[in-house]
Amino acid sequence: MGQPPPWLWDLPLVDLYSVDIIGFMYDVPFVATPEVVVRRMLQLARVRPGEVLYDLGSGDGRIVIAAAKEFGARAFGVEIRKDLYEQSTARIKDLGLSDKAAIINASFYEVPLTDADVITMYLLTTVNERLKPKLEKELRPATRVVTHDFEVPGWRPVVVEEVYEEWRSHKLYLYKIPGKEIPIPGKVRAVEDRWLGQVAQHIDGAASLEEIATKLGVTIRQVREALEELRKLGVVEEVKIIK
Ligand SMILES: C[S@@+](CC[C@H](N)C(=O)[O-])C[C@H]1O[C@@H](n2cnc3c(N)ncnc32)[C@H](O)[C@@H]1O
Fold this sequence. Notes:
By secondary structure, the protein is an alpha/beta fold. The chain has helices spanning 35-44, 62-71, 82-94, 125-138, 194-201, 209-216, 220-233; strands at residues 52-56, 74-78, 101-104, 118-121, 144-148, 159-165, 168-176, 180-185, 236-242. The strands form two sheets. It has a seven-stranded mixed sheet. A two-stranded antiparallel sheet has the order 8-9. S-adenosylmethionine is lined by residues 23, 26-28, 30-33, 55, 57-59, 62-63, 78-81, 84, 107-109, 122, 148.
């Protein structure tokens, strides 16, 4: 008898019973994250309304749907299988979520992720390892990455949590992309708009987007959008990215 393929041991044992055969043609078979674990992943990542989330390998779309419906995110799934893409897209439409959620029928290696605030993944350690250079290159500082059961080798998680669900426990890893985005003041000082003025007050060439967002109680995305306006007005010269 030949040796089993090495990736077989990478799968959660118990899920082997429910694994689909077509799935083995791709990097990772379709195994759904239980709903209670989905919710916990999104809570751990602190997904907030208006934030952009990508679920890499979105399966039946449950993470994308929960992120849009319950957390108010703009959520995208990337799913290579046409049948799962069609099924999850139909579900999104039936739920009336098409303005907030969408599935992209492609390989996650091919889809740009620069706009993400949050990434979720239920893949395999070997696949996470292959995705790592792309994530490191494209994701902005302070982007949150939550993985279910499989680590990103070499990254240090901010939180590791065990979630118990019916008959097995699930391990969740929360990572935060290191580095800072720092807005550098421009020559113009005065701003009429109240909200832009509030953001401008915190721009000193040292405070990061994340720090400004925390002080103002808003999302990094909201600060980034304001900075784009402030850059046009000459209040911000540039946003330095320190990785
Ligand atoms: C373990 S399932 C996770 C499904 C969903 N994210 C969840 O947690 O319920 C992994 C999914 O990744 C998809 N997949 C595998 N390789 C892929 C690739 N290269 N690009 C996009 N999707 C892929 C599979 O078809 C499968 O639906």
